[in-house]
Amino acid sequence: MKRIIVLLAAFAMVGAAVATASAAVDLYGSVRFRTYYNNYNGDATGGTSYGTTEWKNDGLTRLGMNFKSGDITGKWEIDAATTAANYDQKGHGGADRGQMRLRLAYGVWNFGSGSLLIGQDFPLTDYYVTSIYHTDNGLQGWGGLGITQARVAQMKLQFGGLRFAAITPYTSIDPVTPSGVGSINAYLPKLEVRYDGKVGNGFNYMLVGGFQTYQANRYSVGGDGNSANILSYVLAAAFKYNYKALTLSALAKYAQNAGNYGLCFGNPASGFQTFGSVNGVGNRADRAHVYGGGSVDNAKQWGALVSVGYKFSDLLSLETGYGYVQNWNDGGNYGYHDDGQAAYLQARFTVAPGVFIVPEFIYYDAMKSKNASSGYYSKDGALTTFGIMWRIDFK
């Protein structure tokens, strides 16, 4: 048995040597550990206020590989599964249950004047303004810009600062009120275009737009046999300005049917039982409403996010920021408004190369949602969270 093990190890070493000879492989990883306290008020839970403690390995702890061989580069990255079934408050993640999640897997061909990417990567409408760690989304659902399915299959062309992407369409949210949809037909991929530019030495900016359309068919029980086209889009602009130790960042966005497009909607939404709905009926104000005969009421969204950071030394940096988002759909018999805001303060201690201790305080306010047709207001609650993200990077 020992001889067999030694023989298999020898074959593995030879295979690794052959692969390394033909392509440069760079391994890297990041271990992240969460120690937070979360306090939900009574409006957020539909009852009394309560608190929870997080003391666990973060789901974004990861292992990855970068490849390079001539004009070809690539990346492969995995992390612990974070679905509700595989990741819980007791610290059990996907890794100790034999399950991992594919984060990134793509190859890039540099053909001289540009490059072509195929595989699973971030969409162009995924953009971070802040560096906060709680829920790991940087306030993307609270005025920022981010996608619920953060890494998706796509084809991407790049020419300098200009990029075009054709992405798997997002159809996970039924766009129908009342019920009756039997199927959704998506004939075209989601299309995005983005330009990243620079002015002078310290000013960087980003312009991005995305478009998606699909057909909702009311063929199920309760449906009338008609179909409706759901058109969603997003437009956004952002900038980052660095002046010595000071960093200023901001983003503004406008979207139609943002929920149908797949934009983040107020994470950690799972902590708010009524956030995104009105009077418990579950009708989100960020998605289209489809009615009998195929008529459609389109939802609108606008949001903004600003942050200010200052690096005091190689050891300590501070950052603070504020985000606000508003969703509304006023058409037909179903009118809904839903707002949200968040503010944070973060300190980052770089205690050694690749070793970070990051205390942060965040206040998420789901504010109120409104049923415009009945005038009913619902308090959606708030979450106060503070704690530390512990992080060690290695390569």
Would you summarize the structure shown here?
The chain contains 3 helices and 22 strands. With 395 residues, the chain is mainly beta.
Number of helices: 3
What is the SS-derived class? mainly beta
Element-level helix/strand string: HEHEEEEEEEEEEEEHEEEEEEEEE
Strand order of the largest sheet: 1-3-4-5-6-7-8-10-11-12-13-16-17-18-19-22
| Distance from first to last alpha carbon | 33 Å
Largest sheet data: 16 strands, antiparallel, barrel
CATH topology description of the largest domain = Porin
What shape does the CA trace take? globular
As a percent range, the share of strand residues is over 45%
Q: Please, what is the average pLDDT?
A: 82
Spans of 5+ residues with little confidence (pLDDT < 50)? 5-14, 273-282
What's the number of extended β-strand segments? 22
From the alpha-carbon coordinates, what is the Rg to the nearest angstrom? 23 Å
CATH architecture of the largest domain: Beta Barrel
Helical fraction equals: under 10%
CATH class of the largest domain: Mainly Beta
The figure for the number of domains is 2
Tell me what the structure shows:
- It is a single chain.
- By secondary structure, the chain is mainly beta.
- It folds into 2 domains: 59-118, no CATH class; 122-394, Porin (Beta Barrel), CATH 2.40.160.
- Helix content is 7%, strand content 53%.
- It has 3 helices and 22 strands.
- The strands form 2 sheets. Strands 1-3-4-5-6-7-8-10-11-12-13-16-17-18-19-22 form a 16-stranded antiparallel barrel. Strands 14-15 form a two-stranded antiparallel sheet.
- Strand 16 (300-311) and strand 17 (316-329) form a beta hairpin.
- The longest helix is centred in the N-terminal third of the chain and has 21 residues, at 2-22.
- The chain is globular and about 60 Å long.
- The two termini are 33 Å apart.
- Mean pLDDT is 82; it is low at 5-14 and 273-282.
